[in-house]
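[Meeting: bench + compute handoff]

Bench side (C.D.) handed over the final construct sequence. Compute side (W.E.) agreed to return the predicted structure before the next meeting so the bench team could plan truncations. Sequence as handed over:
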Amino acid sequence: MKHCPACHADVKGDWERCPLCHTRLKDTKGQRSEDSDFPEVPLKFNRKKIRQILSLSSIVLIILYFTAHFIWRFQFFNLEYVLFGIMIMWLMMLVIIRKRRNIVKGIVYILFLFSLLSLYFDYINGWLGWSLTFVIPILCISALLAMFISIQVVNLRAEDYVLYLQLAAIVGLIPAVFLLLDWVVFSLPSLLSVVFSLVMSVAVFFKHRQAVIDELEKRMHV
């Protein structure tokens, strides 16, 4: 339990600053605190629904892979890359649910961690380019899918996630730089990341346009 010295409210969870006035919170462990005027309202989600959606999404992705392979009669990329993307999607979903009061922190953490690890291992193995060609675009797509699923199963208001989704979509556009600079040996993963990110960004903006504008004004103190 943490306490806001300005609002005199007790705040549960892993908040660093008061959600009301943004004052840095003080840790009250071992101290008896008064009842808060702003009790925590837990975010509700259905674990069974999460597993069902993730399982269905995983099956659909695998079916799409084999369908594309059957139609075009040549190997796009190995199945392990698809399985890697599915694993990342499940992992991101787990982080989002556990850290659901700071979704963007969990998403950015996983994106940067796995991206840096892939770049490092690609470098020490003679730089074959698989980190830029496959891993980073797949990470971007998986992040967007995980965030989209979390919104469906966690009780979040539009203003709680619109900027997070837009941020993830912007990150998903980074592979466009790889394409422009010809840093990839196979363009499909980067193209999918860019297209998926553009569609997600535009859809969120038009569906929650006012919420996006309000959040930008709030964050920029306009």
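W.E. noted at the follow-up: Residues 47-219 form one domain. C.D. will use this when planning the next construct.
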